[in-house]
Amino acid sequence: MSMGQEVRYRVRGGRPLNGTAFIQGAKNAVLPMIGAALLASKGRTVLRNVPNIEDVRRALELAEHVGAKVEFHEAERTVVIDASRLDDPERAVLPADIAARFRGSVLFVPALMHRMGRARIEGVGGCNLGSRKLDFHYRGFARLGAEVVEDEERNHINITSPYLRGGHLYLDTPSHTGTENLIMAAVLARGTTVIEHAALEPEVIDVIEFLRAMGAKISGGGTGFITVEGVEELTAVEHTIMSDRIDAGVFAMATAAAGGDVSLVGANLEHLGVARWKLDQMGVEFSQQGAVLHVRRDPSVPLRPINAVTSPYPGFATDLQSPLMALATLAEGESYLHENIYDGRFALADELNKMGAKIEVEGTRAIVHGPTELRGAEVVAHDLRTGASLVLAGLVAQGETVVAPGYLVDRGHAQFASRLAALGADVVREPIA
Ligand SMILES: CC(=O)N[C@H]1[C@@H](OP(=O)(O)OP(=O)(O)OC[C@H]2O[C@@H](n3ccc(=O)[nH]c3=O)[C@H](O)[C@@H]2O)O[C@H](CO)[C@@H](O)[C@@H]1O
Ligand SMILES: C=C(OP(=O)(O)O)C(=O)O
């Protein structure tokens, strides 16, 4: 598969962060919304505050591949999608060369089922985080009347769905994309669907609001018990994507690591959830003034160690566990991290240890022995959050840190290097010769 020009991040540590950074629109809200836009058989969907990240570009390629007309007005951060011509079942395919590069590709399946009566999944990607199953999605589609057949030889999934009807669904764990996908499968199905043990993430609620504006009948968002009454048709609407709480968390932790005083435009302290209180305990000061979140850390006061256990929202977000691990290497004492969502997240520990950290991993638990003086090294981004966390570590390391492959950072953070550089950091994103 073509990767385009490969890039890396090069960071020289030792500078505090000061100034203003703009927090992007949420990756994990925009991807389901691009999938949802394909449910509208008339009109043009307008999505605003769209982050200019690789996952969005892949999602738009996929939307075009299945027959939608797509415009990305990058300067306006606006995407316009016309899905009125999604009527060729031959195109109801998620090809591996696009779909295997991001997890969000699975969010296209409901639209293909409704609009073309079938879907073939030739690959679904996403960060390399160990085992990441999609059984809740497939079993849920089947309970709503789809036929889901695995072609083991080719490693494809073939779904046929001439007729979807409401059903009673229960998720064994409150899967984020699983909840979104089952809602999208239910909105145009005949009758009522109930989804028990549904995800509570703010992005899921934003997606529900978007679908409701399109005419979907959904109640119970944010309660864990969602009811969907199927409707005949959905209309294209305009929607502004919520801000990305993970991007905000990473910038807050970068400020905490380097020391300094930063205003995050668009960041919402409430969406950070418990991560806010963990950082508060470590010695990071927050204050929200309207749409601006102010983050401050006095570099002369040492950071305190922290314990965090990842769990679905409102628990500590697994996507923020990686930058927290990097930050904890600087804290005075032992920090404990318990990862409950992804078995692969701790690949970061070895990379941070190459930079001088002292992190012990035992199964799903990690102990970070701080404080350590980090030094620059060549390190590997195993996934999006590892990549961003290594850049963060590089901000405080002595000498130069080189993080590759940069594509993984670019999957989820827009203009990461230039936004950090605007705060005074020495970070460049450059092609690998
Ligand atoms: C595009 C997107 O929104 N990605 C986010 C989403 O991923 P994603 O929606 O893939 O994560 P899930 O909430 O589904 O995964 C949670 C856990 O459930 C398991 N599981 C999930 C589905 C399933 O059918 N069977 C199953 O066993 C997974 O392996 C994982 O251990 O939520 C994650 C957890 O907050 C975030 O890290 C990702 O950034
Ligand atoms: C795991 C992540 O993304 P995805 O689900 O798209 O792989 C992430 O955002 O950290």
Automatic annotation (TrEMBL):
Pathway: Cell wall biogenesis; peptidoglycan biosynthesis. The gene is murA. GO terms for molecular function: UDP-N-acetylglucosamine 1-carboxyvinyltransferase activity. Belongs to the EPSP synthase family. MurA subfamily. UDP-N-acetyl-alpha-D-glucosamine binds at R103, D319, I341. SUPFAM superfamilies: EPT/RTPC-like. Its EC number is 2.5.1.7. Keywords: Cell cycle, Cell division, Cell shape, Cell wall biogenesis/degradation, Cytoplasm, Peptidoglycan synthesis, Pyruvate, Transferase. It comes from Nocardiopsis endophytica. HAMAP family: MurA (MF_00111). InterPro entries: Enolpyruvate_Tfrase_dom, Enolpyruvate_Tfrase_sf, MurA_subfamily, RNA3'P_cycl/enolpyr_Trfase_a/b, UDP_GlcNAc_COvinyl_MurA. Residues 11-419 form the Enolpyruvate transferase domain. The active site is at C127. It catalyses: phosphoenolpyruvate + UDP-N-acetyl-alpha-D-glucosamine = UDP-N-acetyl-3-O-(1-carboxyvinyl)-alpha-D-glucosamine + phosphate. Cell wall formation. Adds enolpyruvyl to UDP-N-acetylglucosamine. The modification 2-(S-cysteinyl)pyruvic acid O-phosphothioketal is found at C127. Phosphoenolpyruvate binds at K27, N28. Its main location: cytoplasm. The keyword Transferase applies. This is UDP-N-acetylglucosamine 1-carboxyvinyltransferase. The keyword RNA-binding does not apply. It is found in: Cytoplasm.
